[in-house]
Amino acid sequence: MxxxxxxxxxxxxxxxxxxxxxxxxxxxxxxxxHIFVSNDKDFNEYSxxxxxxxxxxxxxxxAEVDNFIVGYFDNGEEYAYMNDDVSGIFEMKSEKTVExxxxxxxxxxxxxxxxxxxxxxxxxxxxxCNPYYMKNQTEKRYDLSLILDPLSVCVNNKExxxxxxxxxxxxxxxxxGESSDAEKCVxxxxxxxxxxxxxxxxxxxxxxxxxxxxxxxxAFTAKxxxxxxxxxxxxxxxxxxxxxxxxxxxxxxxxxxxxKKPKKQKSKKSNGFIKPxxxxxxxxxxxEIPQILDS
Length: 295
Description:
Number of helices: 8
Structural class: alpha+beta
CATH topology: Spore Coat Polysaccharide Biosynthesis Protein SpsA, Chain A
Shape: globular
Order of helices and strands: EHEHEHEEEHEHEEEEHEEHEEEEHE
Largest sheet: 8 strands, mixed
Strand content: 25-35%
CATH class: Alpha Beta
Number of strands: 18
Radius of gyration: 20 Å
Helix content: 25-40%
Distance between the termini: 23 Å
């Protein structure tokens, strides 16, 4: 299986994380590993550091690199997509424990085959490596849900190109934002009608690295990007909520609601206020998902 990895200014960070913990540990063929970098300095340094891998010069920017990767591979070509800071992939073994996956290549092939069987082009894993949250999930999920791209599989889909979101930050600097994780899920869903998510597995990733990578994102850029997504995809995104730490939680609409048994109409209390039943049921139609940006 081919592997696509984007990296910027983190030659040794990549070695410590994804290269050692994923590529070497699970014996991936390095000649099939494509590392996409964004400047000549990185191209030269990565070429020396990883001579067995294929180093590819791409544009700068998260969405720009992702779009370049989609254009680089042929339509329908299969590959695993990774960030440069993945420290492992884990399987839930009980309500309190997770253990490292023994055969990642077999797991990725199983995920890819599930996508192809259903005619989908994107698959991944549960977004949080925490058995407390994983335990209540179905084993597999096929509707619109969050898949974080730092460890995922793709059947290359030329209909999935991500948006760049220009904005002026409060200090007057120009910033190009994105919401790559959420938008990638929405666009693959719109294109093929579903995604595949294995909920018993989750990667560990450094989502907000302070050195190298693509810097400049903060609470302001996250909010502007979330508002852009709500306006662009009103049929698939219900809204967002800003947390105390500035991270935005994007709420996906439930595109495949489960049938509900008829209930007697009665009022329910919430925080001292009475909400009509129809309002309570309406709230249940949305899934709130944390927007975790790429490193």
